[in-house]
């Protein structure tokens, strides 16, 4: 945070504050903002529990209740957990692996400024009674203006898009940091387990989030442009939303869990004075969790009319994920047994994690059975399960980590007594609130009900749960008080817990206690340097805010998105222009920009896959496809577009190679831009030539969307190539250092790979 | 808690199979949990007096056996048993007897339309079935996703727009079994309850015959006035009373309203007083429901009630 450290190039005032792109700043912003939203969502939960404490109450009316429980869920899942955990990762992992600063700091800063409006939008909407109100998974057709009139669904879609883009951007920065900034000798097998957990989690973000971004975009289109992705009346399918959502949603909970497991793996060895038993096992378990979690999403849909054989297969895969989790838990238990344990506050949180998370894991295996789940799903049993795993696997480790790394970040020791009291209240509160909910669910109480009748046996258990919820709130409050009060507590020595990992080698921020620190505190100067800070620039924040305004603008008018995108493009160009040059010499140089772009391209490819995959899903769902009056477009258009797309991508990729031989590169880039623009023109003519619109039925909707998205992607390529051409001509890219052009070439390569899939889907598949 | 609509009180073939699986899972789960908690307690006791900083041990191979046994072998054994039981349930559920009768249930916001195709019976929020006879329930929705569940008889199944889902219900003994909507469907998801009455086959046939018959003609002058109120004041726009000109399809059929135990999808008991309160101000009980306030005068309301009470 703002310490006495030397801060090169930090400008004063609000502009300076917005331009600060140092990793430490961005990470602390994510952590503190995330925790603030945690508090808000927690207050919403307390209101919910007050309403449910007794049967037939009207503490909250149904509308208020709908919005509060939805905002509780969306805030916790989208606005608190992943951002706060990624923030902790961003703060700790660089120093754990020996890096002085994060890679791609401007991208991380961009992520923060895109994320903040998402969280604010949800809560401002709540103040106006327009917050999302169809649950955090926002099932259709309920979440459409027809059944929930107002802006609720649009706010949801915009908040999802923004917050997910933010988490992907931050994940790209994390992956790149781990890939490129490890200290000498720190091979992947010597990385702390926290770094492994964060690496897997970040990779999961990159692959999972695009699915929900595509789904939310389709939702916006259905709402504002009249498309029929999810409307059964015209060939769409509400289950398409569920598949797209849960393909993201299930990995989401595991990528939230993994940093928690990483924190546990950081705290345990320190207080056991013993290496984490079975390092390779634990690292492998993180990888297994990451991979398996993408194969289980249908377990959220066991009560839907999906094929029984498929459900059973997904059930088996769901069980399988308990194995790597078990490996991790027993590694922790073994380490604690064989070590010499001191029961400091962070370790108490680890013990709490074991008890609570394992309970949640067991109920998870129970709901993982496709048959038994027919009795559990949509009852309070699932509410019990999810809170046990999230509170046990995410929240308790998170708070343990905050206490653990507090001396590193602030230079002070966190208070012990308050810490123990906070833990005791939180742990007890979790048990009192959520253990009874297993019973409540087995007595038949459904989820998401604003009230319930007396006489069904649900009264007493609900009251107990409410008391427990307030106890959790007390614990969080005590923890917060401890964090604040300890800022004036005793100064912390450099490695107060006696840890073995590298992040404690950085001196903590200096704590100045006199007017003449160097006279009276001779060692204070050791902590004064924080490594090479990133040079400040306001353009990441500007680009983010323009994009955020554009996306939020779609709540009111889709055209605002265009304006937002255009402005964001301008800010992005300035960002790239003022960034330090990338040292890449050719396409194979694995620089930070290379890694970051590669990770980003994976996300874009997954998004394209989700969109194209939806075409095939809807085709399979409808007996006849395309749905009349939609018909396969003339092949001539497809041929023309293929030639133009091929030319555009080929020219851009070759231009990077040409840069070593001067001169022709600018012409090639310009040619690529022109080909791209012609492609967009052809797509526009093709769409205008149709005698139906995107709103006619589901197959016109998906065809139109694929065409528009492809057009936008190629338009972006053309625009970037045009700008790059001008820069090359002006000599900005020296011949031997093509730098950021490599990223452009990679993007072009992605388009070249995606186009055949798209072209096949639009032109050939409908004819089969 | 015998009042609770609980899957642990099975009174039907399918619910019985699933209840066994739940019980097995609870037992196995508690066993594993006790083991892990026991280890935690043992750790706490083993290290209870440690405060000094001891030299660190960097050997990460010591204790790996715990991972083999507790992290790999134990889960594999337990999970195989759990999966095995799932497969057992799948097979057992597939072995249920073929249903003879079909009942169609259509979910609305926030009530249940019940039809007996082939029998010309249309009712709402209550369903009668003969004891011991499997009944196929065909589930659809008229608007958003709902989910049908009668915990004591069978599993739940979602009702998805554009699709038809099916369940087979069999009740072992006579009784009234509560169900509720199990997929969040808007403001009054909490007040969308359902009842299945299982009765001996003779009683069921009698019920069916009663339901097939149209509404009895009004038996008093006030009741006749009540029918006039019903037809003239807009009720007939939404509700059907078979045998009268009232043919509305928007809301529940009311042909035999007086023989229902609950009204407004399980929200209120069907007494004259509650019915009066409901008709006077539906929004008070079920905000957001499509039924408007009718602003009937006092005498009109009493006449209407007299008529409705005659609809047995």
Q: Any descriptors?
A:
heterodimer, A: 768 residues, mainly alpha, Cytochrome C Oxidase, Chain A, Four Helix Bundle (Hemerythrin (Met), subunit A), 2 domains, 68% helix, globular, disordered N terminus, B: 312 residues, alpha+beta, five-stranded mixed sheet, three-stranded mixed sheet, 8 helices, 12 strands
Task: Kindly describe this structure.
The complex is a heterodimer of chains A (768) and B (312). Chain A has 768 residues and is an all-alpha fold. In chain A, 68% of the residues lie in helices and 0% in strands. Chain A has two domains: 25-520, Cytochrome C Oxidase, Chain A (Up-down Bundle), CATH 1.20.210; 592-767, Four Helix Bundle (Hemerythrin (Met), subunit A) (Up-down Bundle), CATH 1.20.120.80. Chain A has helices at 13-19, 23-52, 62-97, 105-127, 152-180, 193-224, 238-272, 279-292, 308-320, 322-338, 345-368, 373-376, 380-410, 416-442, 459-485, 517-520, 539-553, 559-578, 592-621, 635-658, 664-689, 698-729, 741-764. With 312 residues, chain B is of the alpha+beta class. Chain B is 38% helix and 19% strand. In chain B, strand 1 (101-108) and strand 2 (111-116) form a beta hairpin. In chain B, helix 1 runs antiparallel to helix 2 (64-94), helix 4 crosses helix 8 (298-309) and helix 6 (272-280) packs across helix 8. The mean pLDDT of chain B is 92. Chains A and B meet through helix 3, helix 8, helix 9, helix 10 and helix 11 of A and helix 1 and helix 2 of B.
């Amino acid at each position: 945070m703002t310490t006495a450290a030397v801060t090169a190039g930090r400008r004063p005032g609000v502009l300076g504050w917005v331009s600060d792109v140092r990793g430490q700043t961005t990470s602390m912003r994510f952590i503190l903002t995330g925790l603030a939203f945690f508090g808000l969502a927690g207050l919403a939960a307390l209101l919910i529990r007050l309403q449910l404490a007794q049967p037939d109450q009207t503490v909250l009316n149904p509308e208020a209740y709908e919005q509060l429980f939805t905002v509780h869920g969306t805030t916790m899942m989208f606005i608190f957990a992943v951002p706060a955990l990624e923030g902790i990762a961003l703060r700790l992992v660089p120093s754990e692996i020996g890096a002085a600063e994060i890679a791609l700091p401007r991208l991380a800063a961009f992520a923060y400024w895109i994320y903040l409006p998402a969280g604010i939008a949800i809560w401002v909407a709540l103040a106006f009674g327009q917050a999302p109100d169809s649950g955090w998974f926002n099932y259709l057709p309920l979440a459409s203006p027809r059944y929930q009139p107002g802006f609720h669904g649009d706010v949801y879609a915009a908040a999802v898009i923004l917050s997910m883009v933010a988490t992907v951007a931050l994940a790209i920065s994390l992956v790149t940091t781990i890939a490129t900034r490890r200290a000498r000798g720190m091979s992947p097998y010597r990385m702390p387990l926290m770094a492994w957990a964060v690496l897997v989690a970040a990779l999961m973000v990159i692959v999972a989030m695009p699915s929900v971004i595509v789904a939310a975009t389709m939702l916006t289109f259905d709402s504002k442009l009249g498309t029929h992705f999810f409307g059964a009346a015209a060939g769409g399918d509400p289950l398409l939303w569920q598949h797209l959502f849960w393909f993201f949603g299930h990995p989401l909970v595991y990528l939230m869990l993994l940093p928690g497991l990483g924190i546990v793996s950081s705290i345990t060895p320190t207080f056991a004075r013993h290496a984490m038993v079975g390092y390779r096992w634990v690292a492998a378990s993180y990888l297994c969790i990451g991979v398996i979690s993408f194969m289980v999403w249908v377990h959220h849909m066991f009560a839907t009319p999906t094929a029984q054989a498929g459900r059973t297969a997904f059930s088996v895969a769901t069980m399988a994920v308990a194995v790597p989790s078990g490996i991790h838990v027993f590694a922790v238990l073994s380490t604690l047994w064989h070590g010499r344990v001191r029961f400091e506050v962070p370790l108490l949180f680890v013990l709490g994690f074991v008890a609570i998370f394992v309970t949640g894991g067991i109920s998870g295996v129970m709901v993982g059975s496709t048959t038994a789940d027919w009795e559990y799903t949509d009852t309070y049993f699932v509410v019990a399960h999810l809170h046990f795993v999230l509170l046990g696997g995410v929240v308790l480790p998170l708070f343990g980590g905050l206490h653990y790394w507090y001396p590193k970040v602030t230079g002070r020791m966190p208070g012990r007594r308050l810490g123990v009291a906070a833990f005791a209240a939180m742990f007890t509160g979790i048990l009192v609130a959520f253990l009874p909910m297993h019973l409540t669910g087995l007595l038949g109480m459904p989820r998401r009900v604003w009230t319930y009748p007396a006489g069904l046996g649900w009264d007493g258990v609900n009251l107990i749960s409410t008391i427990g919820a307030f106890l959790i709130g007390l614990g969080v409050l005590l923890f917060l008080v401890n964090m604040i009060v300890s800022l004036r507590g005793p100064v912390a020595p450099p490695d107060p817990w006696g840890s073995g990992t590298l992040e404690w080698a950085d001196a903590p921020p200096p704590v100045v206690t006199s007017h003449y620190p160097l006279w009276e505190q001779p060692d204070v100067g050791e902590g004064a340097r924080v490594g090479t800070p990133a040079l400040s620039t306001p353009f990441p924040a500007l680009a983010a805010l323009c994009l955020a305004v554009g996306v939020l603008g779609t709540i009111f008018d889709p055209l605002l998105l265009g304006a937002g995108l255009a402005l964001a493009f301008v800010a992005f160009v300035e960002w790239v222009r003022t960034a330090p040059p990338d040292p890449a010499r050719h396409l194979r140089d694995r620089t930070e920009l290379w890694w970051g772009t590669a990770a980003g391209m994976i996300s874009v490819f997954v998004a394209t896959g989700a969109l194209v995959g939806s075409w095939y899903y809807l085709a399979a769902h409808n007996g006849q496809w395309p749905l009349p009056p939609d018909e396969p477009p003339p092949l001539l258009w497809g041929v023309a577009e293929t030639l133009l797309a091929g030319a555009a991508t080929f020219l851009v990729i070759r231009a990077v190679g040409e840069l070593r031989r001067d001169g022709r590169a600018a012409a090639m880039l310009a040619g690529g831009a022109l080909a791209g623009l012609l492609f967009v023109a052809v797509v526009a003519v093709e769409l205008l030539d149709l005698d139906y619109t995107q709103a006619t039925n589901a197959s016109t909707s998906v065809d139109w969307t694929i065409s528009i998205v492809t057009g936008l992607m190629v338009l972006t390529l053309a625009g970037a190539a045009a700008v790059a051409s001008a820069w090359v001509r002006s000599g900005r890219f020296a011949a031997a250092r093509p730098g950021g052009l490599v990223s452009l070439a990679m993007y072009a390569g992605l388009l070249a790979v995606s186009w055949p899939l798209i072209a096949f889907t639009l032109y050939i598949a409908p004819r089969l | 808690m015998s009042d609770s609509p609980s899957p642990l009180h099975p009174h039907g073939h399918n619910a019985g199979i699933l209840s066994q699986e739940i019980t097995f899972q609870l037992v196995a789960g508690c066993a594993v949990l006790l083991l892990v908690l026991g280890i935690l307690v043992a750790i706490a006791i083993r290290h209870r007096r440690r405060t000094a900083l001891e030299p660190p041990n960097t050997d990460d191979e010591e204790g790996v056996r715990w991972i083999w046994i507790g992290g790999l072998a134990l889960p594999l054994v337990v999970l195989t048993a759990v999966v095995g039981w799932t497969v057992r349930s799948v097979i057992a559920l597939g072995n249920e007897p073929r249903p003879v009768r079909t009942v169609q249930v259509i979910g609305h916001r926030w009530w249940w339309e019940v039809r007996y195709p082939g029998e010309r019976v249309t009712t709402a929020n209550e369903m009668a079935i003969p004891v011991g006879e499997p009944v196929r329930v065909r589930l659809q929705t008229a608007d958003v996703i709902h989910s049908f569940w009668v915990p004591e008889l069978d599993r739940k199944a979602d009702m998805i727009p554009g699709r038809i889902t099916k369940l087979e219900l069999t009740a072992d003994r006579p009784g009234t079994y509560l169900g509720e909507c199990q997929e969040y469907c808007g403001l009054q998801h909490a007040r969308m309850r359902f009842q299945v009455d299982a009765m001996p086959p003779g009683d069921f046939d009698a019920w069916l015959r009663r339901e097939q018959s149209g509404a009895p003609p009004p038996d008093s002058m006030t009741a006749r006035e009540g029918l006039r109120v019903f037809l003239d004041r807009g009720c007939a726009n939404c509700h059907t009373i078979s045998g009268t000109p009232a043919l509305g399809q928007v809301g529940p059929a009311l042909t035999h309203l007086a023989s229902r135990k609950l009204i407004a999808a399980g929200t209120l008991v069907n007494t004259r007083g509650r019915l009066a309160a409901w008709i006077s101000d539906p929004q008070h009980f079920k905000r957001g429901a499509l039924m408007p306030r009718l602003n009937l005068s006092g005498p009109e309301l009493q006449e209407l009630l007299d008529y409705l009470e005659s609809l047995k």
